[in-house]
Amino acid sequence: GENVEQHPSTLSVQEGDSAVIKCTYSDSASNYFPWYKQELGKGPQLIIDIRSNVGEKKDQRIAVTLNKTAKHFSLHITETQPEDSAVYFCAARLRGKLIFGQGTELSVKP
Amino acid sequence: GAGVSQSPRYKVTKRGQDVALRCDPISGHVSLYWYRQALGQGPEFLTYFNYEAQQDKSGLPNDRFSAERPEGSISTLTIQRTEQRDSAMYRCASSLATGTRVGETQYFGPGTRLLVL
Fold it and tell me: Which ranges of chain B have pLDDT less than 70?
């Protein structure tokens, strides 16, 4: 089955710096890769996603890149703000179901 | 409703009791998913439905867990003879459709926190 590895588990940056979170997946049949932000006490909320036929996607300060050959995808947040502090999860979709990474706790220090 | 709703939000039960967790998806969403999330971990897939048909139940831990969606809308996840290890956050998600460019986003509900004593 699919396995998604996510690194780092914790990330601390200064406000205004960039943050990068990386994920790898194992099953080449996975075709859709969403990123979710989860704040304390709330459910995961989609922030950006990318399909397997696209290499990069950007939405304001957030971008995702995908390398299908290496089975690797990354989330990039630029100009971080304190409100970006949360747990971020990557996921890979295989036959309808999402397989999630272990999460990255991002802390943005003012 | 505006989003996915789940009830109850919190459930405390004694070991050996049965529990039923309810999910009300976004109106018109074809697909409904159940996940379980342990503290500090990512959601773990349990099962999912397209309309009323259960498509994949490979993530259900054992035969004490079952789910149904009889009319293709509301779904119930039932855990029989609960055990302490069943304690977790149970999350439901729905999507407009599966495998389509615009309909594949899964929207998550607030979850049901289950505690088995």
Answer: 1, 98-103
